Amino acid sequence: KLYSKGIDKVEFYIQTNPGEEMGPLAKIASGGELSRIMLALKTIFSQKMGVTSIIFDEVDTGVSGRVAQAIAEKISQISNNSQVLCITHLPQVAAIADNHYYISKSVNDGRT
């Protein structure tokens, strides 16, 4: 069967908790779990493929506290070998950055 983006269709199955059934990533994982899975995949790809720049767009969505700190530390580790651009709303993640850029959105004539 031909799909909109090619002939192959890939679906990831995961088990996020002991005793639970495996299921499709899109149906099983919470927002925080998806964020951590994406961080793990980008970390692996950056190491294996020699990626020099990585963009994380709110990879810390749905997390807080110790998990947010762990994500910040992982991003810091990645930045030792790659340039990282990270969009975040969490102070733990922003605090690890060497440089900060403030970007704001404004409304003009009822549109952003």
From TrEMBL:
InterPro entries xrefs: DNA_recomb/repair_RecN, P-loop_NTPase
UniProt keyword annotation of Phosphoprotein present: no
Species, as recorded: Ligilactobacillus salivarius
The keyword Transmembrane helix is assigned to this record: no
Protein's name in the database: DNA repair protein RecN
UniProt-listed GO biological process terms: DNA recombination; DNA repair; SOS response
Alphabetic keyword roster: ATP-binding, DNA damage, DNA repair, Nucleotide-binding
Tree of life domain: Bacteria
Family per record: Belongs to the RecN family.
Gene Ontology molecular function: ATP binding
CDD domains xref list: ABC_RecN
GO terms for cellular component: bacterial nucleoid
